[in-house]
Amino acid sequence: MSSMVTTVAARTEGLRKVYGEGDASVEALRGVTLEFAVAGFTAIMGPSGSGKSTLLHCLAGLDTPTEGHVFIGDVDITTLSERSLTQLRRDKIGFVFQAYNLIPTLTAKENITLPLDIAGRDVDRAWFDEVVDTTGLRDRLGHKPTELSGGQQQRVAGARALVSRPEIVFADEPTGNLDSRSSDELLTFLRGAATDHGQTIVMVTHDARAASYADRAVFLGDGRVVDEMQAPTAERILDRLKSLEV
Amino acid sequence: MLRATVKSLLARKLRLVLTALAIVLGVGFTAGTFVLTDTALKSFDDLFGQVYANTDVVVQAHQAFNPTEGGGGGGGGGQELNPIPERLLPSVRAVPGVRFAEGSVQSFAQIIDPTTGKVIQSGGAPTIGSSWSPDLSPFTLEPGGAAPVGPHEVVVDEGTATGHRLSVGEQIRVVTTSGPGEYTITGFVRFGSSNSLLGASFAIFDLPTAQRLFQRVGTFDFIYVQGDGSSTPDQLAARIAGVLPNGFEAITGTTAASQQQDQVNRGLGFLRTGLLVFGFVALFVGAFIIFNTFNIVVTQRSRELALFRALGATRRQVMTSVLVEAAVVGLVASVIGRVCPWEIAVHAARGQFARAIVRFSRGLVPVPLEGRTVWTRYYTPREFTQIYTLAGFRRIALRTLGLVVPPPYLQGFAGRHLSLVATLRRVEDAVGAWPVVRASGDHFLIVMRKEA
Asked: ipTM for the complex?
């Protein structure tokens, strides 16, 4: 499956995740093995309950798998201590949430640099400027999240994910709360980050149009990888999804 | 990270103030209860020391051990001892070393409030009737008053007088064992330094009137003796005991005080326990309020804190963030504006809420002080500095005095908790000059230099 990939940013091996115990247990992931190439933009698709979000959370170290392994670079994060995992999240992973999750009391600029503040690292001015200019937020930097539109807020969240130059950015339904124009702006921004800056991105979405911005679409169904598609277009994805749901 | 915490705090000023207020209340309630407990018990302890301050020796009927005899001075205002025949007084006076010896009778006497027509009695405190002792009285007459003379004059304690707006020259009704009677007030008395004796009301008549009213004609309850200084109270007591018939004893004033104190303490055992229970309840409630408040704050912030964690904040960073908020709230709670925490606690505990927050007022305010009203103005250090800056002074140092250390009027409390006060003093030494902290407290030390 991965013979052509020269460098792997992240991969999973036989990932299983079971919620609850006994009769009430639900198996969200039933053995997922995947690889994500460096500088690749991957969309993970699938119907509700197919395990998309669980996979993303396990990949990002926000949730612990029941079985299997997750590697970020060469590091198996399932064996990491709480402390090392926190450090890994801080230094190597960027996150974009559906609900933006900006700190309402901080300005856009402060929100973007928050991961660096937390890590206690200095802001790389040149990179910060580049990220900000790509998102087109230059004149909104002094505003609080409540003074920004949804699209602008999500672009702030995108800039926040990128500013610490993580090895991999995870985006969980980033366009879920956005109108189509704002979605396009955000997706163009993510696409550009992958193409121009070699940023590895894994995005969970159920929106075929959003997935069409990616290099590759992975389809999940009932906790398993059921298919994947290189250079997807919206039409092909929709067709594939229809066949999955039947 | 710290910036995020501080900004989050500042963005929710109302929450900050309200949590601070909750903590002020919790701490104030707790501190207030303990101070009140302590003050009340101390007052009882001091009581009899003051009663016998001028008295070296007390002659009284021999006290058989009587465990049922609880509250000395309670209700009737004196134990029912065998009366001392008047004829013993000249023999006591004749003992070498005696300067004064005076007979005294005590009983109950209820003063009727002229406006309401009801018996004056505050919170179950005793209503005491006593004879006036010109030389050995524990009472001091207020200026403008005169000692009671003859069958129609009475002196009352100042606490009762101010509480019920009595005035010198006024006619009042007093009920004694001989029934009600009309008397003219000739003066008010203070009791040592205080204007009232723990809320007890006192009606004081001259000795013959008191003997007649209390049905002790020809007898005394006590003979109070003051020595001329040529012998110790113990020696004097021994000599006086020599002239007394069987059934009477002469004890030193100190012994009499401690005997009565013991009785009162036995009677007050329940009060001690009760107040202690209140103290613990207050401690629990205070702790609960504070715990609950922070619980709510953390719950409110949980989303934000979870985000911090997702962005790579360590547990320690999140914990620090919560603790910083707690510390800031605690600091604000302890030093909101013109605040003297002890003053607020002491007065709030006594139910004097207006007095507790008197410092918050600007301009001239009336401040009740030991039963009198003093018009005063609470300058903040900033106002003070401004005034003097105009006069050409420059402030070179400012620190608070009596912010966490109890102020001087709680000397008694401080004296009984030396190690606590020593700790508080170290705290105050360390933080007394910090900004914000230095602008609150009971007193301030402001050093200024006159500019050339």
From this structure: 0.76
